[in-house]
Amino acid sequence: MDVNGSAVLAEGVRKRYGDGYALNGFDLSVPGGTVCGLLGPNGAGKTTAVRVLATLLRYEEGRAVVAGHDVAREADRVRRRIGLVGQNPAVDEELSGYRNLVMFGRLHRFGAREAGLRASRLLERFQLEEAADRPVGTYSGGMRRRLDLAVGMIPTPVVLFLDEPTVGLDPRGRNEVWRAIRELVADGTTVVLTTQYLDEADQLASRINVIDAGRVIAEDSPENLKSLVGDDRVEFVVHDARQLGVAAALVARVGDGDPVVDGDNRRVGVR
To answer: Hey, which family's this protein in (predicted)?
Structure first.
């Protein structure tokens, strides 16, 4: 913990990319044992913030402390106390779930016996025991993401960073991952998750930090932030991106404003 009681702390962090800043005066304070949601559109700086806090990127200005250690000066100590689950699966689809976890356990320098014990415990914890010996390529999307979470928990982290943990999942898969995250927090893990979806942040986060242009522009509880949003919004997801134009024309008839089209996630929204 930092002296102010934060498991994660960032003050005035700036990270340059090219001629601009991906983080431009980024501030964050996350109490231990809570879920912090970093909410914002693509390109807002969410993933860069996670990569900086997880010691994967160096920053030019500011201060960052994770699990009681300075990110710039004590990177090795930070790494020993965190877990990170990125947007893209890190597991080998040809190996079984059990073999994947053992492999990552060995990469964390656990002996063969300890790696096996941790793998078995995590498979049980994330309800993957029945699929333990199956190749990961046969898993559903929700099962793969739960296995990713298990990989992130191999070192028993104090802080777990989750970058877009449910992107691309169907509703059932999202609910499976949400349940697993809630259980981690109930056991005392501090979670920092990035998301584009207010409903996901609402379901999981104790506090939401809204990010735009590399800085936090709003921070509050989900309930208070929703009250600021005001008007209802209707959102649709199409199965084929080629249907977005037709869907936008249809939803324009039911809303007061122009449709907002998100091609990456096949979504059309309107107020």
So the answer is: Belongs to the ABC transporter superfamily. Drug exporter-1 (DrugE1) (TC 3.A.1.105) family.
| Full-model pTM | 0.78
Question: What is d(CA 138, CA 249) in angstroms, rounded to the nearest whole number?
Answer: 38
Distance of CA 67 to the CA centre of its chain: 18
Q: What's the pLDDT at 123? A: 94
Fold of 1-81+157-230: Rossmann fold (3.40.50)
Question: What is the domain partition of the chain in residue ranges?
Answer: 1-81+157-230, 92-154, 234-270
| Adjacency order of strands within the sheet including 267-270 | 234-237, 267-270, 260-262
Bridge partners of 31, per DSSP, are 6
Cα–Cα dist 34/86, whole Å: 19
Give kind and range of the element (H or E) at residue 52.
helix 46-53
Looking at residue 257, what is its pLDDT? 64
Q: How many CB atoms lie within 10 A of CB 201?
A: 24
pLDDT at 209 over 70: yes
Please, what is the angle between helix 171-186 and helix 141-152, to 10°? 20
Residue 23 CA from chain centroid, whole number: 18
Q: Across residues 67-80, what is the average pLDDT? A: 95
In the block, which residue shows the tokens 């431009």?
A: 24
For the chain, percent helix, then strand, then coil, each to nearest 5?
A: 35, 30, 35
